[in-house]
Amino acid sequence: MTRKSVIMFLAASIAGLFISLVSAQAGEAVEGTAKADKLEQCVEPTPVMRRNHFEFIKHQRDLTVHEGIRGSKYSLAGCVDCHARKDAAGKAVPVNAEGQFCDGCHDYAAVSLKCFECHRTVPGEK
C-alpha cells in the first residue's frame, strides 16, 4: 500500500468515525427542552430539593399508598413530567437514562436509583 493510500484510508476512517459519533448523539436529550429548564426553581428552592427531595418523595409515597392521596407537589410523576428532556426528534428521554436528570445526581452521589423499577421514566399521556 502506498503512502497516499494509507493517508486516504486513515482520512476516510476518521471521517466515518466522526459521522457515526454525530449520528449516535442525535438520540440524546437536548439541553433546554425540559419544562424545568425554563423555571427559576423547582417546587422548593434548588438547595432544598437537592438536600431533601428523597424525603419529600418518601412522604408522598406514604400518603399515596396508605391514604390514597395523589397529586401533591411532591409526586414522582410531577418530577418526571417537569424534568424529562426531549431528544432531537422531540421524543421524551427517560429521566434515569445515562447522563439525564435523575441519573446524573444519583451517579455523582453514588446512590442507587430504584424508583423507576416500578415508576415511569417519561411524562405520561395527558
Radius of gyration: 21 Å
Which percent range fits the helix content? 40-55%
Largest sheet, in brief, is: none
Order of helices and strands: HHHH
The number of distinct helices, counting runs of at least 4 residues, comes to 4
Whole-number average pLDDT?
83
Separation, N- and C-terminal Cα atoms: 62 Å
Overall structural class, as computed from helix and strand content, comes to mainly alpha
The assembly state of the depicted protein chains is: single chain
Got a strand count?
0
- The general outline is elongated
Which consecutive residue ranges, at least 5 long each, have pLDDT under 50?
20-27
Taken as a percent bin, the fraction of beta residues is: under 5%
Walk me through what this model shows.
It is elongated and about 75 Å long. It has helices at 3-25, 46-67, 76-83, 101-109. Helix content is 49%, strand content 0%. The chain is mainly alpha-helical. The longest helix is centred in the N-terminal third of the chain and has 23 residues, at 3-25. It contains 4 helices and no strands.
How would you sum up this structure in a few lines?
The protein has 126 residues and is an all-alpha fold.
Characteristics:
126 residues, mainly alpha
Give the SSE layout.
Elements: H1 3-25, H2 46-67, H3 76-83, H4 101-109
